[in-house]
Write a structure and sequence with these properties.
- The complex is a heterodimer of chains A (239) and B (256).
- Chain A is an all-alpha fold.
- Helix content of chain A is 72%, strand content 0%.
- Chain A has helices at residues 6-17, 20-45, 50-65, 68-78, 91-116, 120-128, 133-145, 150-163, 175-186, 190-221.
- In chain A, α5 (91-116) packs antiparallel against α8 (150-163).
- Chain A is flat.
- Chain B has a domain at 100-168: Up-down Bundle (ABC transporter ATPase like fold), CATH 1.20.1580.
- Classes of the chains: A mainly alpha (239), B alpha/beta (256).
- The A-B interface holds A 119, 121-122, 124-125, 127-133, 135, 139-140, 143-144, 147, 222-230, 232, 234-239 and B 15, 18-20, 40-46, 49, 52-55, 83, 87, 90-91, 93-95, 97-105, 114-115, 118-119, 147-149, 163-164, 167, 175, 180, 227.
């Protein structure tokens, strides 16, 4: 069995690092997609028609309960043969769709928890001041609901980052794929795969610290204990 | 005889099986100050929440300045009002809440400005000026850049009043606005309401437990009991010389 070689390490390093752009770019693209698409789930769930919100809940549950790898394979291999809407997509696009949709269902839940945390009194004040639905969401509800969820969103970013190598299975050439290629060429997997692990560590650990800092800052920003209206019990209901 | 600015016609409201209001008829004239008193659970908060469109009546009509609040005409028939109709009528009404309901992510100046800018579409500079003047009037001109969490309860409630007043409603609703305050802060809030009342042009409906205050500023007092208006009249008639036995019992609790 071969021993660890620094020569191999430094030989493999430039090659593996080349994939960092793809891996990081895919992470950012998937996350942006999930952030935007998350709102789709959140708002669809709020449609006050029972059958619609039930259907949306069920679809979200289905997506969350299925492995992302299966979803990636489906989009890459099976989607082109789906009648009417089926089309062939590039591996990169497939990865954005697959991982983006998968994580958007989690992010939709995060948004929902943020919105549920808004006191009933805020909705009533917005109504009393005659805000339109759009303005109510954009100036009153979301600016209060989203900042507290940033740490949770950050955690999902890191979790997602670690799932990005799944994309190599459909041919997106990120750092993992390049390390594998190097290994196959030189019959040396130890060093290139160590490099991959190190790169993930170097990127995700500082991100985790940054998110922790952000969380502290968010908590300081405005005192969440502001008694902005515990829901008044309609008279007659209580007592 | 002036036309009423608000008219309740046989308003009923139930929450599930519980009938909270059992047929309310009430006229509020422009600039009239109406105090609503009564034991808790008598439906007094519900009366003003219906007018603010926070609750929908089970039956009956509310007419605001000649327009039916909860119904609108469509193809010659009266149908349930849509959001557009509600919004057009609602702009005449303002409300101050028991728990203030200030927007915690905005400074107090922004709290006052936001509806002027986003709802009334008033120019930002003008909105800022009007809001600052109004905050000055309620005694908070020095604290424009502070956040609600930095204020005392009494100060928060004064911001909430400025926020509602700056919209220049024709009718202002006050929902037990001093109930959530420490006793020593009640005075400053009542003082502001008294000032607003003196200016006169706006109708006011105050749900309150402050009997002396009601006696002092109200033109009309309603005693609500068990979902009906059990007694109404001038403060002198209702509070100083009550005839209704339940009202006498109710008032007794405030006299000692």
């Amino acid at each position: 069995m071969k021993k660890w070689s620094w020569d191999t390490f430094f030989d493999a390093f430039p090659m593996v690092v080349q994939g960092l752009g793809i891996t990081a770019g895919l992470t950012v693209a998937c996350f942006l997609f999930a952030l935007i698409f998350g709102f789709f789930w959140t708002f669809m769930q709020r449609i006050p028609i029972k059958s619609v919100s039930w259907l949306i809940r069920w679809i979200m549950e289905f997506i969350r309960s299925t492995p992302p790898l299966v979803q990636l394979f489906f989009i890459y291999y099976a989607f082109p043969s789906v009648p009417v809407i089926g089309m062939t997509l590039s591996p990169f696009t497939c990865a954005i769709l697959g991982l983006g949709i998968h994580f958007s269902t989690y992010i939709g839940e995060v948004y929902r928890s943020g919105i549920d945390g808004i006191d009933e009194g805020q909705w009533e004040a917005a109504k009393a001041l005659n805000f339109s639905t759009r303005k109510k969401w954009s100036t009153i509800i979301l600016p209060q609901a989203i900042p507290p969820t940033i740490p949770m969103l950050g955690n999902y970013l890191i979790i997602m980052f670690k799932e990005i190598p799944l994309a190599s299975t459909i041919g997106v050439v990120g750092i993992l794929q390049l390390a594998k290629n190097y290994g196959a060429q030189h019959f040396n997997y130890l060093e290139p795969l160590t490099i991959v692990a190190l790169l993930f560590l170097v990127l995700s650990y500082p991100s985790a610290i940054l998110i922790g800092k952000l969380e502290k800052k968010m908590n300081r920003r405005f005192d969440k204990k502001e008694p902005s209206g515990s829901k008044p019990i309609p008279e007659g209901k209580g007592a | 005889m002036t036309e009423p600015i608000v008219r309740y016609q046989n308003i009923q409201k139930s929450f599930g099986d519980v009938e909270v209001l059992k047929g309310i008829d009430l006229d509020i004239k422009p600039a009239e100050k109406v105090a609503v008193i009564g034991p808790s659970g008598s439906g007094k908060t519900t009366i003003i929440r219906l007018l603010m469109t926070l609750e929908e009546p089970t039956s009956g009509d509310i007419i605001v300045d000649g327009k039916n609040l909860w119904k609108m005409e469509k193809n010659g028939k009266m149908v349930q009002a849509n959001e557009k109709h509600l919004s057009s009528v609602r702009s005449d009404i303002g409300m101050v809440f028991q728990h203030f309901n200030l927007f915690p992510h905005m400074t107090i100046l922004e709290n006052c400005m936001t509806a002027l800018v986003n709802v009334k579409k008033i120019d930002k500079q003008e909105a800022k000026q009007r809001s600052a003047e109004m905050l000055e009037k309620v005694g908070l001109g020095e604290k424009l850049e502070m956040y609600p969490s930095q204020l005392s309860g009494g100060q928060k409630q004064r911001v909430a009043m400025a926020r509602a007043l700056v919209m220049r409603p024709k009718v202002m609703l006050f929902d037990e606005v001093t109930s959530a305050l420490d006793p020593e802060l009640v005075g400053e809030v009542l003082e502001v309401i008294r000032d607003i009342a003196k200016e006169g042009e706006m109708a006011m409906v105050l749900v309150t437990h402050e009997m002396d205050f009601a006696l002092d500023i109200a033109d009309k007092v309603l005693f609500l009991d068990n979902g009906v208006i059990a007694e109404q009249g001038t403060p002198q008639e209702v509070i100083a010389n009550p005839e209704n036995e339940r009202l006498q019992n109710f008032l007794q609790r405030f006299n000692n």
